[in-house]
Design a protein that fits this description.
Blueprint: H1 12-20, H2 22-32, H3 37-64, H4 67-85, E1 91-92, H5 96-119, H6 128-159, H7 161-169, H8 174-199, H9 207-214, H10 219-252, E2 265-266
Antiparallel strand pairs: 1-2
Helix pairs in contact: 2-3, 4-5, 4-6, 5-6, 5-10, 6-8, 6-10, 7-8, 8-10, 9-10
């Protein structure tokens, strides 16, 4: 981009000025007596500490540039995302955390592999500057879909217990009794990414596109990359949501068409 203006590295005083803006949220909390001051301070501190730590780790990973280091980083990111997705539901069951990790892992890695190997054709395949950011964006959105799907399906099953048992008693199959709750859960899990796709580029400029433009990339090229990322995110989020709903189905409905409602406990 000839004649353009490029951003310089941010100084620590500049970061401090931006961090001070969090005081606006603190003032709102105090004015409305929301009692969120401590949570805001803790969240801000965690943001700084976590991002600084990730920055140093990624710098090392990029410098080493070995496939086993990149894979280890990918596994760690996936485990953290899967664990977080399984901890947001009011109603839980014993294998919930494992199911959320499997759903996040399978859907995210499958879609990321298609994007990296087939669409973007990254070479070598473990190039960390592509693999880690792309997988991270996919994981973040898949986490949201899986968490919402898990929360909705367990809540629906608990609230619809009488209806489900009535259907089963009348001869319905376990899937017929489960389907209305499954439809509501999948719809809830896919809604955020659908909403994001509906307003992308008009209301919001996604992070990847913004970063590329700020780095000097032509807007047209940045847009093409962002389109790819949005479709990858959408596919992974949908697959993850459906996967976790089906895993809940296998956990809570027996082959004899019984609803194992007692496995659900309140968190």
């Amino acid at each position: 981009m000839s004649g353009g203006t490029y951003l310089t590295d941010l100084s620590w005083p500049a970061l401090a000025i931006s961090a001070a803006l969090i005081l606006i949220n603190g003032a709102i909390s105090l004015a409305l007596r929301l009692n969120l001051e401590k949570k805001l301070a803790l969240a801000a501190l965690r943001t700084v500490v976590q991002l600084l730590a990730v920055g140093y780790v990624l710098g090392w990973v990029f410098a080493v540039n070995r496939w086993y280091v990149v894979v280890a980083m990918m596994v760690l990111m996936t485990l953290v995302a899967g664990r977080a997705a399984g901890e947001r539901s009011r109603w839980t069951y014993r294998q919930m955390r494992a199911d959320s990790i499997v759903s996040v892992w399978g859907s995210s890695w499958l879609v990321a592999a298609i994007g990296l190997f087939v669409v973007l054709r990254v070479h070598p395949w473990y190039e960390p500057q592509y693999v880690i950011p792309i997988l991270g964006m996919i994981l973040g959105n898949t986490l949201t879909g899986v968490a919402l799907g898990m929360e909705r399906i367990t809540g629906e099953l608990q609230s619809r217990r009488d209806q489900i048992e009535t259907l089963l008693a009348m001869g319905a199959t376990r899937w017929e009794a489960f389907r209305p709750a499954a439809q509501a859960a999948v719809r809830a899990g896919m809604t955020p990414v659908i909403n994001a796709m509906s307003v992308v580029g008009i209301v919001s400029l996604p992070g990847m596109m913004t970063g590329q433009v700020l780095a000097g990339q032509a807007p047209e090229a940045a847009i093409r990359y962002q389109i790819v990322i949005m479709f990858l995110i959408s596919a992974a989020s949908g697959l993850g949501t459906v996967s976790v709903v089906l895993l809940v189905y296998k956990r809570l409905f027996s082959a004899e068409h019984r609803f194992l409602y007692w496995r659900l406990t309140e968190h």
